[in-house]
Amino acid sequence: MVRLPGRTGTRSTRPRGQRLEQTPGPARRARERAQRNRAADGRSTGVWAALRGHTVAGQVFVLQVVIVLLLVLAAVAALVLQVQHDSTQEARNRSLAVAETFANAPGTRAALAAPDPTAILQPRAEAARTAAQVDFIVVMNTDGIRYTHPMSSRIGQKFVGTIEPAVRGGTVVEEIHGTIGELVQAVVPVKAPDGTVVGLVSAGITTQSVGGLAERQLPVVLGAAAAGLALATAGTALVSRRLRRQTHGLGPGEMTRMYEHHDAVLHSVREGVIIVGDDGELLLANDEAHRLLDLPPDAEKRRVPDLGLAPDIADLLASGRVATDEVHLVGDRLLAINQRPTDLEGGPSGSVATLRDSTELRALSGRAEVARERLSLLYDAGVGVGTTLDVTRTAEELAQVAVGRFADFVTVDLYDAVLRGEEPDPGDALRRTAYGGIRDDAPLYPVGRQIRFVASSPQADSLRTRRPVLEPRLEAAPGWLAQDPERTGQVVQYGIHSLITVPVRAGSVVLGLVNFWRSEKAEPFDTEELALAEELVARAAVSIDNARRYTREHGMAVTLQRSLLPRSLPEQSALDIAYRYLPAQAGVGGDWFDVLPLSGARVALVVGDVVGHGLHAAATMGRLRTAVHNFSALDLPPDELLVLLDELVGRIDQDETEDGAGAPVIGATCLYAIYDPVSRRCAMARAGHPPPAVIRPGGEVVFADVPAGPPLGLGGLPFETAELELAEGSRLVLYTDGLVEDRERDIDTGLEELRDALATAGESPEETCRTVLDTRQPFRPGDDIALLVARTRALGENRVAEWDVPADPAAVADVRAAVGRRLAAWGLEDLTFTTELILSELVTNAIRYGSTPILVRVMRERALICEVFDSSSTSPHLRYATTTDEGGRGLFLVAQLAERWGTRYTPTGKVIWAEQPLP
């Protein structure tokens, strides 16, 4: 049992937890009741309590009775004095009652807050004054400025009288000599619901108005009252001062009830309360403090260090220092302690501390923190896993997210088919795809290792049942130990003791396993963590399956693209060529390039780009590349070839738009160039493609001034061919826009960067390609990049022979003889007969059907090339003569003797050519 200092008797026996009457502001209300009791001392309860005389209030009452008796005895002969006294008392009571009634009347407090209180309160005050038969009712603010008065001229002036106690919440009843004579006035506060004083009300009445007998017996009353008043005032002042000092204006009943309330609350709360004096003596400890600290029954009045408390608790309570929610371990409890000094506002020196048992709260907070961390893990997995469409990278991201936050080591094992983008066969082996751990020396299977799990292992069980499996104690799991006795023994010896294995499921397909290993925490995985692991893997499985499907689609597209791109460059002697092709990061695209040998030792270079990615772009690229192959066989100039290609793209767009099965080709570009090693001239035309770069033998880099035609497919717009003469050893650089343009830079910046890279490149085409791409590393392009570098060669005069032929059939013999001599000089005597026969037929046809000038040219390149030029645009055609025909067998013989033959047109005529392989 705990007793407050200075209290006699035992603490209230009210049962703990019983609700007390909820009386707001008990001290204030008690003081008000005490004042009302003193004003109405005729109440039987107060009189009876006072008559007992055992309390301070009783003593005061006895003293007042004595004084009154003395006054009565002194005024026996003067009845008027008694009447005057009664009149004054009646005036006090009436003025106080009227003031309190008006202050508490409905609407008074609201009127004080109105913009014009006088307009509202003046009529009411006058009506109340008349009804209550008082001389005035004055309403004022807390500064004493009147809002009402019987004389309107005095509204707004300062109130005459004492208002300070009323401003502080008390009541003032005083007798003053006013302009209307001797009067009694009472001043009471008008309070807001929170107890704040918002205004004052004063009511007054003259003693003359109360009773006329007082005036008639005034001399006698004044004399007797003077003597009695002097004695009563002295005694009352003495006792009242003592009473106010000791009881703060409270009566015995109020003090008793207040103490009982405070005592009940003190011992009913679920917080320990301890009050310690400035000398370290325990002054008070409630029941909860006794329970939490296990204090002895006689703890009060003993010093804190002598109570057997833990040193940290004892030091804190004895020090009196300020503490806020300091957590201390007491036995098996976690106590949150708050401590403050008690002398902050003039109170007694010492300190008060509250103790709260936070053990359960801390446990709940811990569980909430665990739940929050798990939700955070799942959120991070949703954000951080699957950032790319790469199966291996997705598995690595899953391991990175879980390591340290959920498991100490994480391994991801997937079927090889999944890595290839295919659906796995459940009977296949798995491959360790990703590993993550707090350390790198764990004796687990390394990445890349192919694994077959034995039937007794938890991994095999998980694959079979498609459910996660928890193995809490690996050292006691014979099925897992049988997987690889030597390695599993090393794993257990390393400290890994618990395992969760979860299948990676995508619908009905199992893609692999994720293994979570624990070593640092002594506790094994539990069922809640098993559910978390299943949810974590389920979220990652979606990303892994998406990456697998993308890998499959990407592989199909890449296979298609590779099948459509040239696998090797054709043999030719006009150019030294190197190339690079970089697929886009997002997938395959529509960029392509080609090297096409043409007649007369010429070579065509082509680079094109179909904007977009995916199978449609790759398929369209293949169609365009095939078309370029076919069109180049016609030996057309670059601008005419682009016209045909433009018409083809337009037809493709029209067919696919009508069919609705595909998207139109938007943004297809192409650059077509033909290089002639004999003349060292290069004819180029481009359709919406970036201009080619030329590196001259001295290292100067220029971009060829080739007119920029519209992209393919627009139709109706012309293309122009530009011709350049390239010195031997020049490098022609063709590329697609992925090399010089992306989202972070425009094409002008890219061209300048390309110029700088080409200026520092080596002389060979291979070095040029390597230098250009090295400037873009590390780099994963957002668009395909095709780069083609060709270094020019020239076919020297020692390998070319030309003859002008007159339009005379007899000149054919001279041509045969000259050609025979040239072939002998080249060491090609074995080809003399067939070459003379071919030239005889071609020259004869030119003389017979063509027009002058006629030119014969023979070139020794990878093949022996014979060309006959004439100015006619009539193209010969092969026909099969009958047995009775006298002619028509010339071209047939040429086709039989030559490996290839054909016709191409020039600005001034045509060329008929034939090629024979060299022996």
Structure description:
- This protein is an alpha+beta fold.
- The chain is built from 27 helices and 31 strands.
- The strands form six sheets. It has a six-stranded antiparallel β-sheet, with helices on both faces. Strands 17, 18, 19, 20, 23 and 24 form a six-stranded mixed β-sheet that branches. The chain has a five-stranded antiparallel β-sheet with strand order 6-5-9-8-7.
- A hairpin with a 5-residue loop joins strand 17 (589-597) and strand 18.
- Helix 14 (359-384) packs parallel to helix 20 (527-564), helix 15 runs antiparallel to helix 20 and helix 21 packs antiparallel against helix 22 (638-659).
- It is elongated.
- The N and C termini lie far apart (126 Å).
Could you name the key traits of this structure?
27 helices, alpha+beta, six-stranded antiparallel β-sheet, disordered N terminus, 919 residues, 31 strands
Gap between N and C termini: 126 Å
Overall structural class, as computed from helix and strand content, comes to: alpha+beta
The backbone outline, from C-alpha atoms, is: elongated
Secondary structure tally, helices:
27
Give the strand order of the largest sheet, numbering strands 1, 2, ... along the chain: 12-11-10-15-14-13
Strand content: 15-25%
Would you count the extended β strands for me? 31
**Main beta sheet:** 6 strands, antiparallel
What share of the residues lie within helices?
A: 40-55%
Low-confidence stretches: 1-27, 39-54, 883-887
